[in-house]
Amino acid sequence: MDSDIPGPSTQANSAIETVTADAEPEFESSDATAFAIGMIFLFCLFAIGAKVICWGNSVIAKGNERSALERAQNTQQEAQERQKRARTASQQRGQVLAAYLPEPAASLFLSGSHTHLTVVCNNKERYWADGHTCEPPEFLAKAYDKTFKELRVVLQGDEGRIVVAVLDYFRKLCKTHDLDFDPTLLHVRLYVYAELADLHITDLTNHPLVKAALKNFVDVCKHSWSTPAFAQAVQEIYQHPANFTKGLRTAAADITAKHGDVLLAPGTEHHDFKAVASSTPHFITEVLAARTRAAANGRGKSSR
Questions:
Q1: What tens digit of pLDDT does each residue of 241-296 get?
Q2: Three-class DSSP category at 245
Q3: So where are the chain's domains?
Q4: pTM to 2 decimals?
Q5: Are 71 and 179 a contacting pair, CB within 8 Å?
Q6: What is the tens place of the pLDDT at every residue in 83-116?
Q7: Parallel, antiparallel, or unpaired: how do β-strands 150-155 and 116-121 relate?
Q8: Cα of 252 vs its chain's centroid, Å
Q9: Contact yes or no for 169/217 (Cβ under 8 A)
Q10: Torsion, CA 276, CA 277, CA 282, CA 286, rounded to 10
Q11: Using CA atoms, how far apart are residues 55 and 2, in angstroms rounded to an integer?
């Protein structure tokens, strides 16, 4: 009988087995719950990530769109500024050249309402756009479409050549010396006409054209002082009032004072220059003054 009655250890083991059997389903249920929560968390992360990516792409797209719009606006503003500068340059060129151009061409060019200029001189055409040589008008008309407005001027004789030379002057500022004639006289005439324009046109009061013409005149005369072109330049200078040619008179006198021993030496050489000098007393007076200044400067340098 005693063997049929379970002992304490047997009862304890049965209890443990019962508890273990009952606990195993709880552990399995906890693992499933954790797995489900983890999957939900990962899904939320993926969803948030997708939304962040979509938001980022939207921001980038809006930024690109804004940048493209700003670039388009800047391009349009730059184009407007270029057109404004071109109109201003056209008006300034027209103001200086108005003395040369016949009516009604002068008034048309002064208005600044044309984008391009075609000058016909002795059946030869020259084309300019914003101060630069350019393609023929037929080509430009297609490129500019409705904004193309040509001013065509037909000139005869020497006046046309002067206009073409002055336009070349604007284009090159005489940085190159590929003109087909001596530019000495051109610098003088441009200086004079720029001074004349300066008296009547307030926009050109501080225009550097006069200074550029004077500088180029001095530079050219370093090589042309012994040629007939220099004599012609002196004659042209003293045909105009002194207030229009003050800088030129000083420059011509200084050049003559420097080379006077050659230009005014007895003999038949430089007869063109001697004829101009003998018929222009004011010029000789200014040459003597220039020699006095040069001598004084020389003494001042030697005493230092």
A1: 888 788 899 999 999 999 989 998 888 788 999 999 999 889 999 999 999 988 88
A2: coil
A3: 173-299
A4: 0.44
A5: no
A6: 676 556 555 555 555 544 444 445 545 555 566 6
A7: parallel
A8: 33
A9: no
A10: 130
A11: 80
